[in-house]
Specification:
The complex is a heterodimer of chains A (about 260) and B (about 350).
Chain A lengths: L1 E10 L3 E11 L4 E6 L5 H9 L7 E10 L2 E2 L5 H8 L1 E4 L11 H8 L8 H11 L16 H14 L4 E5 L7 H16 L3 E6 L2 H7 L2 E6 L2 E7 H6 L1 H8 L9 H10 L4
Parallel strand pairs in A: 3-8, 3-9, 6-7, 7-8
Antiparallel strand pairs in A: 1-2, 1-4, 4-5, 9-10
Helix pairs in contact in A: 3-5, 4-5
Chain B lengths: L1 H31 L6 H16 L6 H21 L5 H21 L3 H4 L3 H28 L7 H23 L4 E2 L9 E3 L2 E3 L1 H23 L1 H11 L1 H6 L4 H26 L1 E2 L10 H8 L4 H22 L7 H16 L14
Helix pairs in contact in B: 1-8, 1-9, 1-11, 1-12, 1-13, 2-6, 2-7, 2-11, 3-4, 6-11, 8-9, 8-11, 9-11, 12-13, 12-14, 13-14
Classes of the chains: A alpha/beta (about 260), B mainly alpha (about 350).
Chain lengths: ~260, ~350
């Protein structure tokens, strides 16, 4: 459905963040992308959604394809309208000074029609906690509620592909669990989901496939269950290697020896 | 006592016009965090556009042609600049629009010969002139502000400074720097209560400014475009991620702002005459927004009225003492006082910024 081919992205003409990344998203799956900080996960989502221009980044090589057509270099509103790719930015992208209802209305701006009211009720059905807060300013909602609102806003744009950037950021484990269950429900209702996460364990548990990104490249990919059981992923991202704890010296050498490719 | 009431009353009426000026600054500041220093020039140009329509002013061909060519180049440049629209669209559109504008300036609309009733003429010319001013504002935004989207607001502010000089020169080039007599001939609604006397012109100015102010607020808080503007003014990146075209919203905001400035400009010209050197009046918006708070719409209203009253009181009580011209300084003194007590203005959001 969505294919990224050998993508290279450079910020400010000097900082190379993605160095030839390639991946494919299949219809109806939950694709998990995990990686350390600064690996280029967020940049990847920005590049797909067309927001990269705004952050002074340039796609200098490679292509992003949606089906047959290339969406590289299109405006983000165009990509959203024509191809149904909605990007939920990290750190709860809600409008603080608007009420929750206004937030949802603002998000449905690009497709204003008679359906908006009905869709809003649908969102409230997905996230019942938002219902009593609908006339409250979003800035006063709690972190979990804000993240739910952000996903709700993304739903208002009628996405085919939902790009979620670290929805669990700064949330309690219980809330994260709830959120991921909702993500699973959304996926069941036919939305393809690309989930970028630090919380690798929880994410891989709900995902169908996963990629591991490091320094702007894919270093590992496979079924989510396989990744969960993979030695290296367990050690680096799940923090629970089977082996006994290594001394710092060992770890250092291990790291030098170990290259992903 | 009568004196006091009289000057406070007329101060409020003028203050409403200032409030409108403040509103123009505030909505631009909210949407792009930039201060529009070219407000005085927007004011003159808006008034002149209205003047051209209302008073049947025509311009000699060698000047009108320049405007036509500029418009043509503008469309050719802007549309060509857009990746989706190729030269074949840009060229004819620019050509036609340039020609239309040329005709508009060269032949005039002959409104005054077609319609004799001044009120009817005003009702026709007012929206048209405002529309022209709004289009002009959005044009300016396309050329100067759009390329800076996502950059620091300071650079936008500096651009408006330079823009002010450029526009002032353009106005002098096209319309010359002499004064034009400006008389709207609106129905006389002079108000006389006992010893109080409020002249017709300031009352009209106050009423029209208040109406436009109300319309803008209704637009911002009742329509979906207004919602988009409010969302964008909070965070451009978030708005774009949710499918709001932040670039178009910015264009809209500049258009509305230029439109409101034109209303204020027409009202202020109506007090006296219209000339290219009138731009400094626009800077009266500076104390207005700083007193009210840079990002508060209600603050603009309060600030405007305060500035108006302060100016009127200074004119009535301090100027007769021999301090001629104190009227112009008084708002800035008030501003200084307010900033000592509340650095963010009366209603401004106190923001915590770490440098």
């Amino acid at each position: 459905m969505l294919a990224i081919e050998n993508l290279r992205v450079v910020y400010h003409d000097v900082i190379s963040v993605l160095n030839g990344i390639s991946l494919g998203v299949q219809e109806g799956e939950i694709l998990i992308i995990i990686g350390a900080n600064g690996a280029g996960k967020t940049t990847l989502l920005r590049a797909i959604s067309g927001m990269i221009d705004f952050y002074n980044g340039d796609i200098i090589e490679g292509d992003i394809k949606m089906g047959e057509s290339s969406i590289k270099g299109l405006d983000c509103t165009d990509i959203m309208k024509r191809y149904g790719v909605t990007y939920v930015m990290e750190d709860r992208p809600v409008f603080w000074y608007l009420t929750i209802e206004e937030n949802l209305k603002a998000a449905s701006f690009s497709r204003w029609d008679k359906q908006v009211k009905a869709d809003m009720e649908e969102v409230f059905e997905y996230f019942p906690v938002l219902q009593p807060l609908r006339h409250k300013k979003a800035g006063y909602a709690s972190g979990g509620e804000q993240q739910m609102l952000a996903i709700g806003m993304a739903l208002m744009t009628k996405p085919k592909i939902l790009l979620l950037d670290e929805p669990s950021l700064g949330l309690a484990p219980l809330i994260t669990e709830e959120l991921f269950q909702i993500v699973k429900r959304l996926n069941a209702s036919g939305i393809t989901i690309v989930l970028v996460e630090q919380n690798a364990h929880a994410a891989l548990n709900i995902g169908t496939r996963g990629y591991v990104v490091e320094t702007g490249r894919i270093v590992l990919d496979g079924k989510a269950q396989e990744l969960l059981e993979n030695e290296d992923v367990r050690e680096f991202y799940l923090g629970s290697g089977e082996k006994e704890r290594k001394s710092y010296k060992d770890a250092k050498r291990y790291k030098r020896r170990k290259r992903w490719l | 006592m009568i004196d006091l009431l009289q000057s406070v009353g007329s101060g409020v009426l003028v203050g409403l016009v200032y409030a409108l000026l403040g509103l123009c600054i505030v909505i631009i500041f909210k949407a792009s965090e930039a201060f529009n220093f070219a407000i005085g020039e927007f004011l003159i140009i808006g008034s002149f556009l209205f003047y051209t329509l209302f008073f049947n002013e025509t311009i000699p061909w060698h000047k009108a042609l320049q405007i036509g060519v500029v418009i043509f180049l503008f469309f050719a440049f802007i549309l060509f600049y857009d990746k989706n629209l190729r030269l074949r669209i840009a060229f004819p559109v620019g050509m036609v629009t340039g020609l239309l504008i040329f005709c508009f300036f060269f032949f005039g609309l002959k409104l005054s010969s077609l319609i004799t009733s001044p009120l009817l003429r005003f009702l026709l010319a007012f929206p048209l002139g405002l529309l022209a001013a709004g289009m002009f504002g959005s044009m300016v935004e396309r050329v100067t502000i759009k390329p800076l989207l996502g950059r620091s607001p300071i650079s936008m502010t500096i651009v408006t400074l330079g823009l002010g000089f450029l526009l002032r020169a353009c106005v002098q080039l096209i319309w010359g720097s002499h004064s034009y007599s400006f008389f709207l001939d609106l129905p006389d609604i002079t108000l006389e209560i006992k010893d109080l006397l409020f002249l017709s012109d300031p009352i009209w100015a106050g009423i029209l400014s208040l109406i436009i102010f109300g319309l803008v607020i209704a637009f911002l808080f009742r329509t979906r475009w207004g919602l988009a503007i409010r969302a964008t003014s909070e965070d451009q990146a978030k708005a774009m991620a949710f499918g709001i075209n932040a670039r178009f919203v910015l264009l809209l905001v500049w258009g509305i702002s230029a439109l409101c400035i034109a209303v204020a400009g027409i009202m202020i010209s109506n007090f006296g005459a219209l000339s290219a050197g009138m731009g400094f009046v626009g800077l009266r918006a500076l104390p207005v927004v700083l007193i009210g708070g840079m990002d508060s719409i209600g603050g603009a209203l309060i600030g405007g009225i305060l500035v108006g009253i302060c100016e009127a009181l200074a004119g009535a009580y301090i100027e007769p003492l021999g301090l001629v011209g104190f009227k112009e300084v008084a708002p800035y003194l008030l501003l200084l006082l307010v900033l000592f007590i509340r650095p963010y203005g009366f209603f401004g959001t106190v923001r915590i910024e770490r440098v």
